[in-house]
Amino acid sequence: MGKPTQPQRADGVEAAGGASAGMAGDGPEAMEGNGPARRPRVVLGVSGGIAAYKACELLRRLTESGHDVRVVPTAASLHFIGEATWAALSGNPASTEVWESVHEVPHVRIGQSADLVVVAPCTADMLAKAAHGLADDLLTNTLLTARCPVIFAPAMHTEMWEHPATQENVATLRRRGALVIEPAVGRLTGVDTGKGRFPDPAEIFETCRRVLARGPLGLTQDLAGRHVVISAGGTREPLDPVRFLGNRSSGKQGYALARTAVARGARVTLVAGNSELPDPAGVDVVHIGTAVQLREAVLKAAADADAVVMAAAVADFRPAAYATGKIKKKDGQEPEPVALVRNPDILAEISADRPRPGQVIVGFAAETDDVLANGRSKLTRKGCDLLVVNEVGDHKAFGSAENEAVILAADGAETPVPYGPKEALADTVWDLVTPRLPTPQPSSTPPTS
């Protein structure tokens, strides 16, 4: 895909971008050239759902991380949260009307000057209006004039989300380049439970941050229409009801891969091992415990996946026998040796027998010595397309928010990734995956009788 045009502000100045845009800590004091940098401008649209109160938390995270936020609520949303609350929390006026401050032409200027528009929560009604280009209030006018990345975070009852009309509207918006985050599964209004729950505001913020951090590339949904499967976290192999063999993986790298894939438009399935991290917004998460469970979940999810990224720290061995009762310490006696058996080699298996033609497989190699030599050997043995090789140890990789690596390719290419946030490494992985994906084939619907 070609490089998207840099968004323009209403006064003709290019919108802020680059790797630092939208990152936590980019406050008004940040310098650009000889003067202070303009804070990234975010429009927070709020439509009329009960989840409107949760948008206050999203607003707080955006403002506290240095963004200039303008809240544009719909009239219906004011039944839940009033204009005064939005104005006080954002430090900017909040209005639903195109007829207020008309000399500033707000229905045009707000969208033109934005670096990001996020509608959270987004109702089925708002999805329909956005998809069909209706403009009957300030928010819908803003959506029509915005030339920056646009994110929708739907929240509604399951039946409304699954209705064919809503799904067609979502498909239309995604085809135009908007990012529509999949809603979460959980408790809805009243006693209902299902898909349609507003995602965690902290995770929506992370998605916004990643889109802004990509600068002009935030407009590029280069994984739109793709399904990617990611494994993350560590497996635990039980020895008895209270003990297990495990590892130090936090899951942060796999979760970063999931967040960045969502920000680039992918449908993401995350097979998550043992991790204390919250589920990323817009991701279908399958929680597992052991290596055998991880294998089953990955093979099932990979059946229709375009790419599989095995970032989980999978135990190579498991106890040969499981003690149904706690193994007791006996005075004066040494413990019995623990016999181990091999776990399945999931990366080698899925690389050798790919569930889908053209599927791109990415592995990870955590090494402590002879890092590149061991990585090249592993790449050959496993048969994957890309292998992310990183050195691990005390304060390296495991549990850290940063990472550095060399990405080895089956064709001999090597891509070093310098020390930095795990999201940066994740984006580099996707940068290497996308050109290796086969051209998507148009779906054919069999004729009906």
UniProtKB/TrEMBL annotation:
Domain Flavoprotein: 41-210
Annotated stretches, region: Phosphopantothenate--cysteine ligase: 228-449
Region spans: Phosphopantothenoylcysteine decarboxylase: 1-227
Disordered: annotated span: 1-38
Cofactor field: Mg(2+); FMN
Biased composition (Low complexity): 13-27
Xref: SUPFAM superfamilies: CoaB-like, Homo-oligomeric flavin-containing Cys decarboxylases, HFCD
Segments forming a coiled coil: none
Keyword Metal-binding: yes
Enzyme Commission number, as recorded: 4.1.1.36, 6.3.2.5
Domain DNA/pantothenate metabolism flavoprotein C-terminal: 223-433
Pathway(s): Cofactor biosynthesis; coenzyme A biosynthesis; CoA from (R)-pantothenate: step 3/5; Cofactor biosynthesis; coenzyme A biosynthesis; CoA from (R)-pantothenate: step 2/5
Top-level taxon of the source organism: Bacteria
Pfam families, A to Z: DFP (PF04127), Flavoprotein (PF02441)
Keyword presence, Cell membrane: no
Family to which this protein belongs: In the N-terminal section; belongs to the HFCD (homo-oligomeric flavin containing Cys decarboxylase) superfamily. In the C-terminal section; belongs to the PPC synthetase family.
NCBIfam families registered for this protein in UniProt: coaBC_dfp
Name assigned to this protein: Coenzyme A biosynthesis bifunctional protein CoaBC
Annotated source species: Streptomyces rimosus subsp. rimosus
Gene name of this polypeptide: coaBC
